[in-house]
UniProtKB/TrEMBL annotation:
Domain annotation Disease resistance N-terminal: ranges: 5-88
Disease resistance R13L4/SHOC-2-like LRR domain mapped to chain residues: 572-846
Signal peptide per UniProt: none
Keyword line: Nucleotide-binding, Plant defense, Repeat
InterPro entries according to UniProt: Apaf_helical, Disease_R_plants, LRR_dom_sf, LRR_R13L4/SHOC2-like, NB-ARC, P-loop_NTPase, RX-like_CC, Rx_N
Ranges where the NB-ARC domain occurs: 181-342
Organism name: Acer saccharum (Sugar maple)
One GO process term, biological-process aspect: defense response to other organism
UniProt name for this protein: Uncharacterized protein
Coiled coil: none
Domain of life: Eukaryota
Entry-linked SUPFAM superfamilies: L domain-like, P-loop containing nucleoside triphosphate hydrolases
A Gene Ontology molecular function term of the record: ADP binding
Amino acid sequence: MVDAVVSFALNRLADFLIDEAAFLGSVRQKVQWLKNELGWMQCYIASAEEKQADDPIVRKWLNDITKIAYDAEDVIDKFILQVHDQDTNKETEPTGCFPSMSSCIKCKKKVNLRDIGNDIEELKNRINDLPRIRELYQLESSSNKWEGKSNSLARLRQLRRTTSFSIEEKVVGHEDGTSGLLAKLFDRDPRRFVVSVYGMGGLGKTTLARKLYHHLDVKRKFDCRAWVCVSQDYNTRDLLLRIISSFGFITKKKEEQDLERYLHGSLQGRSYLLVIDDIWKKEAWESIKRAFPDTTNGSRVIITTRSKEVAENSDERTYVHKLRFLTFDESWQLFCEKSFGNPNANDVDEELKTLGMEMVQKCGGLPLAIIVLGGLLSKKTKPREWKVVREHIWQDLKKGSIHIPNLFALSFNDLSYQLKLCFLYMSVFPEDFEIDVDQLMRLWVAEDFISQDENKKMEDMAKDSFHELIDRSLIQIAKISWGKIATCRVHDLLRELAIEKAKELNFLYIYDEMKQSTGDSSALSMCRREAVYSVTDKCLWLQHSNPNLRSILFFDPYGYRPDIRMKIEYMYTMFRFLRVLKLHGFKKYGGNLSNEIGKLIHLKYLGLRESLVNDLPQSILNLRTLQTLDVFSPDSVVQLPCEISKLQELRHLFGYFGGHLKIESLTKLHSLKYVFSKCWISINTEELGNLRELWIHGPVGTTKEFCFDSIAKLKTLEQLVVKLDHNDCFASLQPLTHCSYLKDLRLYGKIEKLPEDIHKLLPNLECLLLEDSRLEDDPMPSLEKLHNLMILCLGSRFYSGKKLFCSAQGFRRLEILKLDHEDNGGLEEWQVEEGAMPMLRGFSIPTEFESKLRIPERLKSIPPPAECEFERDIWFEAARRFMNYSSY
């Protein structure tokens, strides 16, 4: 993991050298030397971490390197602060030399380059001392010394090697999955194909594969069967030898190609079943599949993996099964089997039952955790003993099984350094916390965990990283809203791993005064990030905190107290290196933001949601690297400074913004939520070419009609939500023909008529909401031509007619259809021809419509979608309070 920290520092130094080349002068060589040395360290530490992770001397040595990498980053940020302070201390107005220092020529004579030179010299001495320490304690840089020696990862891989003959007598749960997979194995398709089972570590993929492998009907169907476990660093020749042995074949051949030919010939004309357990890379199957004849004998291959990508792309003919978590009832049954020896536990003490259920709930449906917990508690019979386990459940589980502490180590070590940092960041959030996905990705970008790419926006890179963590079964999806993953969560056991790793690297400190222990204050003084769960009036954490903190994130439900607010303002002076400051929920913050905020010149993320800020000080213009400004509060309209356009790095702007918005030159703006329609129509939108998300609300004004001409200039727009006053209406939708990337459109307001060629105007539209549209003509003939439409919500007063008609070829990809109940009482019949909506999986109509609205029986049988799929956004729920702000 140290390689991730060093790689991060390397990228910072590289960017610094590029941006400030003309300004650094003779110091540039020293910065370059520092960068080169960290590069050489990186080559060594990856091997040292893997092969000697369990050696305390090596861990200490790696910890020293971590501190050097952190200090190198501090040297850069300290230098930038010095230049800023020199500039702002002059009598003249700040020159605004950020983020690029090279433009600040006037500052050059004022800044003492000797300071950064001295700081690097100190780092140089520490770096030069590392070889002496390595030699003194016999730490050789060559990995040859460790060849053949056992190490923690090698032992873990050996322990993870599964066999076919270890059979679980009673397998709880997954009956539905087992029956479906058996059907695929017995499918009449004579061609060979792959059945992929994927899911999080500990879910029971191997157990399920064994259940299939030993099923009596499976044994009868296939002429021969084999089982092989694949490690991360597999060897193709070794795999072939083990497969040959598992089939029961015997050969003296040794060369890889000879083994392939032998196995292919031995299987020719036979129906076979091969289980390849614990695959990490799709190349594993690719490297051996030539040896398996694809004839008409109905042969099958089962693979298990933690990676969705591997599962889906292992073969051109693949059936994919995602393994689910156990339900609570299944979890309780499994726990009772392991702890009480029977699945019912009828005669067990009620207090033990209550404690057991609490702990089973904590396991979150993960079979391995439940099995270890049950085995641990089976040896304890007194309630007080169970209470001790409950208070320290994860620590006890790690002690109870060698597999638990190492369960996710392989998954974590397989990540790139950027993904390691992104995963560690999940430990910031409290236990059982539903994490806003968009906010999470903005935080990753602000923390510089996402690499720059000339051909791809950082938001897209962050989204790729997020989905990769999901595909690797390290993050769980919590809610899906409007076709997008809205919130996610991390299993408690995974979170414990992330916290443990984060502590090792001084990556994070969690401060929680509601618990008896707040942790080691020395760790607090060295960490780079703090997550504050609760604080008291004393705010002791401020006294011990590291001035070099890069991030402070508050999750304190009591953070609105005035005494705490005053101490929070003190942070602006104390923590000058902050990149992320998240203070959501400080509701008594007062209307004005402190002028001291302007001292945080490194800040990239400022989160003041629900803090009642309505006026931003002029000093906020000093935050030239600011990417996200979130000042949304349900009861507060925010006035932005007239010169807000100086914040050229601004990408996400959230709040109720009134007055005149001078945002035309914010060319990097990606999200704007939300702006009053009167303000919007006065903005020249030609320069907002990167805007992807736009939310508009409120009365239009004297025209009483909202025109889409300004929207038409936003060529990259993907999401548009416009809510008008009840008396206003939309003009023609025709200008939206220029917004070909639009995927999510939600319109609250009257529409005279939908264009017949709406499918040509919006060819990529996936989600559509129409509310209060008061259409007089049946909209279905137009809407059903939207071939990419997956979600359609028809809100209150969307249609004034009595009949709707969908043709047989309509809505080819529609998955969710919802009809709201308010004021659509005139609707009597909904005709849907056979063949329409073939993909529909969720259908909802008001209860009062069920008796009087005539619809086909097929639609009645489709279950309603989950509520979260149409979650009302807090923006517009709160917006109802602002209809009286006509002056905006």
